[in-house]
Specification:
- The chain has 519 residues and is α/β, with parallel strands linked by helices.
- The protein is built from 15 helices and 18 strands.
- Strand 1, helix 1 and strand 2 form a beta-alpha-beta unit.
């Protein structure tokens, strides 16, 4: 987007590659992840200020191991090799890598030597100091290349940290990016600021200015843009950024499919049509969606019906707007990374279709103003743009909405029941001060009726499962041990206030083996 300084991360398949990038971004330095096999010509065109070689699951001496050209280390760029990255650097530059006598996974302590205490990479550490780190390797350096010196060691990996100070080449066997390496942030900071002499200039204020200029350049002086506004974090921030850049030439389309949370539509209308004066088209499609879902109980069929219908509604509404040339999407950087194949665990995880996969007949050019950002950066940008905190810190909500939280047939009555119960859950979780610390907390309406007693009368009504999980990215999740008193309050309120539910149960299943959503 600009001539900003770039740190280039080459991905060799580590499960931590995105975390490396996030840690560097948190230090306000811009970085990008690219596959390890990016060409030297492409690297030269990018003109990076530094290189980071990620870890990976391979062994450098095995057939088919991901390799780079030795010329990479002749570009004169400061380079930090992490785990597999240091092993590869050592092998290509004349060192030796062998299987370790004892594989090392988990916590370890790296002892800093005299050379390490003098190295800018370990600035702030003292000779003899033991650094708590996280290891994950089955190979180790047996001999370092010419020009390298040892700066840190463990009993199992005698060359745990090495440096060629003259060429600014550094290698560490441990992972500085994970929380289990408490001083890892200091090491990354030392590399960026003391070794590479970079400045912390990557801020969301600067990004907003650059992005607005880029949007105006891409769209031109007269181009019109449409955006599917869901009310979630990504689409809301993208909408505000576009509004700032092109004003009334942006049209936001909000589809009310009857599967939304309580107050969703009113909140979007109040913020965007009201406070921000956006051109907002609200499509009332509840009857249309529920008619398509009538009698359907299969989860996958529900998702496909909702996806197809959303595309149809969005397409119809878009055709009513004259002169539209561009479609805006809230694509984020993890979407971009995960849609590119890398060798190893970070290989393609999923393909992304943020608007459900729009028909080719629309012939619109894409505008993706957030595609360089991680989720935490999107929230920071949103705050910079003046979006209210409740919008920025909303918990993720599934694309198919309440349909995948209603097991069995989806009807208006069941949607209304779950909507009210979900609002109670939201209210009590917020009142307990837990909302922002929980990844998702919600109710699932079960197709299970049970006998109850209310006011000396027998009831026969639905059960609701309460779900609350901690997660970083939704790929894995742990159930939240909510306080018993809070569980009791939620259960009592739902049973008393929501007609149609007479029993509440708590889901204590993690992911895996379960999933976050029930369908």
């Amino acid at each position: 987007m600009s001539s900003r300084s770039v740190v280039l991360i080459l991905d060799f398949g580590s499960q931590y590659t995105q975390l490396i990038a996030r840690r560097i971004r948190e230090l306000k330095v811009y970085c990008e992840i690219h596959p390890y096999n990016i060409s030297l010509e492409q690297i030269r065109l990018m003109n990076p200020r530094a290189l980071v070689l990620s870890g990976g699951p391979s062994s450098v001496y095995e057939a088919g191991a991901p390799l780079v050209s030795k010329e990479l280390f002749e570009l004169g760029l400061p380079t930090l090799g992490i785990c597999y990255g240091v092993q590869l650097m050592a092998k290509l530059l004349g060192g030796s890598v062998q299987p370790a006598d004892k594989r090392e996974y988990g916590r370890a302590h790296v002892k800093v030597n005299d050379a390490g205490a003098r190295s800018p990479l370990f600035h702030g550490l003292h000779a003899g100091e033991e650094l708590a780190v996280w290891m994950s390797h089955g190979d180790r350096l047996e001999a370092v290349p010419a020009g390298f010196t040892l700066i840190g060691e463990t009993p199992n990996a005698p060359h745990s940290a090495v440096a060629d100070e003259k060429r600014r080449l550094y290698g560490i066997q441990f992972h500085p990016e994970v929380a289990h390496t408490p001083r890892g942030g200091e090491i990354l900071s030392n590399f960026l600021f003391r070794v590479c002499d970079l400045a912390p200039t990557w801020t969301m204020a600067n990004f907003a200015e650059e992005a607005e200029v880029h949007i105006r350049s891409q769209v031109g002086e007269k181009g019109r843009v449409i955006l599917g506004l869901s009310g979630g974090v990504d689409s809301s921030v993208a909408a505000k950024l576009l509004l700032n850049a092109i004003g009334e030439r942006l049209t936001c389309i909000f589809v009310d499919n009857g599967l939304l949370r309580q107050g969703e539509r009113a909140g979007v209308e109040s913020l965007f049509a009201g406070a921000f004066k956006a051109d907002l088209h609200v499509v009332d499609a509840e009857e249309r969606f529920l008619a398509k879902l009538a009698g359907v109980t299969d989860p996958e069929q529900k998702r496909k019906i909702i996806g197809r219908e959303f595309i149809a509604v969005f397409d119809e509404e878009a055709k009513r707007i004259d002169g539209v040339e561009f479609l805006a999407q809230g694509t984020l950087y993890p979407d971009v990374i995960e849609s590119v194949s890398h060798k190893g665990p970070s290989a393609t995880i999923k393909s992304h279709h943020n608007v459900g996969g729009l028909p080719e007949t629309m012939k619109l050019k894409l505008v993706e103003p957030l595609r360089e950002l991680f989720k935490d950066e999107v929230r920071e940008l949103g705050a910079e743009l003046g979006l209210p905190r409740p919008v920025l810190w909303r918990q993720p909500f599934p694309g198919p909405g309440l349909a995948v939280r209603i097991l069995g047939e989806v009807t208006k009555e069941r949607c209304d029941i779950l909507r009210l119960a979900d609002a109670i859950i939201d209210e009590e979780i917020r009142a307990a001060g837990l909302y922002e610390s929980i990844w998702q907390s919600f109710g699932v309406l079960l197709p299970v009726k049970s006998v109850g007693v209310m006011g000396d009368l027998r009831t026969y009504a639905d059960a609701l499962a309460l779900r609350a999980v901690h997660s970083k990215d939704g790929m894995t999740a742990d159930w939240v041990p909510l306080p018993y008193e809070l569980l009791g309050t939620i259960s009592r309120r739902i049973v008393n206030e929501v007609r149609g539910i007479n029993r509440v149960v708590y889901d204590i299943t993690s992911k895996p083996p379960g999933t976050i959503e029930w369908e």
